[in-house]
Amino acid sequence: MPDFMSDGSEQFSRARKSSVDGSADAADRSVRRSEPRGQRTGPSAGRRTEQMGAQSRPAEVRTELFSAQVRGSGTELFAAVQHFTPAVETLLRTIAEAGDTGAQFKVEPRLRYRLSGTEYVVNQRSFHKLTADGYVTDSGNDMAPVKLTDRGHEWIRQHPVPHGGSRGPYRPRGTRPARRAPAQRPARFAYAGGFTAEIADRVVVITCPDNGVGGATLPADVWEQRAVDRHPTLHTVEGPTIAGSYALHWRADPRTDADLLVQSLAIVRAEPARKS
Question: Does the predicted TM-score (pTM) go above 0.85?
Answer without folding.
Answer: no
